[in-house]
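Please produce the structure of this protein holding 2-acetamido-2-deoxy-beta-D-glucopyranose.
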Amino acid sequence: MNFTASIALFLSLVSVAWATTNRFPESNWGTSRYGTFTSVSGFFLQSDSSTNATSFDFNDNLGLKPNYTWNSFKNAIEELNANSNETTSYKVIFFGRHGEGYHNVAESYYGTPAWNCYWSLLTGNGTSTWGPDAGLTPKGVFQAQNNSDLIKSLLPYGFPLPQNFYSSPMTRAADTLTYTWNDIALKTGFVSPIFKESLRETIGLHRCDERRSKTYLKERYPDFQFENGFVEDDLLWTKDTQEPDGAKVLRLTSFLNDLWASDPSTYVSVTAHSGVGSALLSAVGHRSFSLSTGAIIPIVVRRDSILGFVPPSNATTVSVGTSATAPSCTVSIGSLASSKTASLYSQFSKDYYQTESYSVLTVTSISTTTATVTAAISTN
Ligand SMILES: *[C@@H]1O[C@H](CO)[C@@H](O)[C@H](O)[C@H]1NC(C)=O
Ligand SMILES: *[C@@H]1O[C@H](CO)[C@@H](O)[C@H](O)[C@H]1NC(C)=O
Ligand SMILES: *[C@@H]1O[C@H](CO)[C@@H](O)[C@H](O)[C@H]1NC(C)=O
Ligand SMILES: *[C@@H]1O[C@H](CO)[C@@H](O)[C@H](O)[C@H]1NC(C)=O
Ligand SMILES: *[C@@H]1O[C@H](CO)[C@@H](O)[C@H](O)[C@H]1NC(C)=O
Ligand SMILES: *[C@@H]1O[C@H](CO)[C@@H](O)[C@H](O)[C@H]1NC(C)=O
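Below is the modeled complex.
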């Protein structure tokens, strides 16, 4: 098969018009929904630019530098939090990419260009199925079980167990989370992982990234919780367009703001996808660090609340960039940014700035390259 046609890229510019000055309550500064995030280096090899990501092996103590033990690391994090003022705080995120899925196998089999422009748009090839919601291969299951052994081997050295677990709503992530953490932290019944829509893989085009219904997930994962507002059906995925990288970074920034606002834990686990990992690293200014399937890396993140948040001037343009994995070979996927996609980006931009200061976002115009969104400021 020969894949020739036009490359469908789209650029979505979201313009937010601010009609009044910010009225964010100053008493809430400490838990502001808006903060800046910074990766803190010095603890893990993976945050150093000199570390070779290809030869890096997370099995080697998750990259903890040799001048730390898990106990002295914990003390150092405790000290950072103890010595910081009310606008600054630190968390450690154990970020895990799901184990190998059927879509990963297919992408290697066909090669990335043919995968992106053709095979990813299908649910399978007759002998292998990867969509919707690609599942783990036996190797993927093994990787997750092997990680469970790895974590168990670190426990005698004071490894800080995550106090809460967050999962992408894709079953390959929830299964990975379960195989890795079940008999370490979940079986005890003290923690119940939380499904977050903001942790799903890059939205759109790829059938492997279309999620199952809430009812299905509830039945398959009775011990998991759903974040507030988690809807029954996948309303975000669309076959026509794909979320750009910039939008994904806004989405992960909004995840981080949620995390700080809703969870006092210092140590949390996040199980998701490669695209989520790169957006998360980007949201905190960590160097790029690509993870193989099943890999886990800790990231130390500092958050500073924005004091007296100053809204951008009227009609500030937030560029969310071009489609993240636009086909580099040819395939017709349609070039119109759908209104659904545009309102998705506006939703994430809304979270990124401030939810409290306005209530409704309306898409006012959409062209093939631009979406304009108007913020209606609530008056009370
Ligand atoms: C910003 O928007 C307000 C309300 O629409 C308007 O009165 C004001 O003139 C605008 N300011 C600028 C600099 O465009
Ligand atoms: C460990 O080494 C790193 C540099 O690689 C340094 O930033 C950090 O302060 C050192 N920590 C201790 C406790 O020695
Ligand atoms: C990084 O590691 C890979 C795999 O071991 C190796 O092929 C590559 O040359 C290394 N890169 C550098 C810059 O050392
Ligand atoms: C399994 O875990 C061991 C020890 O942590 C590691 O050395 C090995 O590479 C892992 N194997 C796979 C296939 O992930
Ligand atoms: C809080 O501490 C941080 C880090 O030391 C500092 O940059 C910031 O200005 C402090 N904020 C206040 C309100 O003191
Ligand atoms: C379908 O894809 C898998 C890899 O994902 C491959 O092993 C298999 O041979 C393919 N089937 C056909 C009929 O091409």
